[in-house]
C-alpha cells in the first residue's frame, strides 16, 4: 500500500484567522497552506468526535484503499464522505492519531474552500 503525506492537524483552543466553522462537527478549521499543509482545529463543546481526535495532533495520508488501510486498527472515526469524492477515516495506531484519505480529487480541489459548498461538513456553504 502506498501512503502519500497529506497534512498534519493540530488541536488549538484559541480562535485563529481564517477559521471555517462546521456546525455538524462543532469545529473550526484553519490553515492548510504550504509548506507542510498544517491545519488547525478548534473544537466546540458539542463536537461529536472522539476525545483523542480533539486533543492530539494527527497526521493524514492519502491512500488508494481506505478500507485496507484501516483494517485491524482501532477506529476513532468510521469511514465517511465529509466532502464529495473525499472519503476519510481516523484511527489510533500505537498511541498516534492517523487520518486516512481516499479521494479522486486533485490537491487544488481538496484545498479550495469554494469547492466545499453544500458538503456534509459545511451544509450551508
Which short descriptors sum up this protein?
2,3-Dihydroxybiphenyl 1,2-Dioxygenase, domain 1; 125 residues; eight-stranded mixed sheet; globular; 42% strand; 12% helix; 3 helices; mainly beta
Over all CA atoms, what is the radius of gyration?
A: 14 Å
CATH superfamily: 2,3-Dihydroxybiphenyl 1,2-Dioxygenase, domain 1
Round the mean pLDDT to the nearest integer and report it.
91
Which stretches are low in confidence, meaning pLDDT under 50 for 5 or more residues running?
none
User: Major β-sheet, in short?
Assistant: 8 strands, mixed
Distance between the termini: 34 Å
Our estimate of the beta-strand percent is: 35-45%
Per the CATH scheme, the topology name is 2,3-Dihydroxybiphenyl 1,2-Dioxygenase, domain 1
**Count of DSSP E strands?**
8
SS-based class:
mainly beta
The portion of residues assigned to helices is 10-25%
The geometry reads as globular
Domain count, please report it: 1
Q: What does the secondary structure layout of this molecule look like, with pairings?
A:
Blueprint: E1 4-11, E2 20-22, E3 27-31, E4 38-43, H1 51-55, E5 58-62, H2 66-70, E6 74-83, E7 86-93, E8 96-103, H3 107-111
Parallel strand pairs: 1-4, 5-8
Antiparallel strand pairs: 1-5, 2-3, 3-4, 6-7, 7-8
What can you see in these coordinates?
This protein has one domain: 2,3-Dihydroxybiphenyl 1,2-Dioxygenase, domain 1. Helix content is 12%, strand content 42%. Strands 2-3-4-1-5-8-7-6 form an 8-stranded mixed beta sheet.
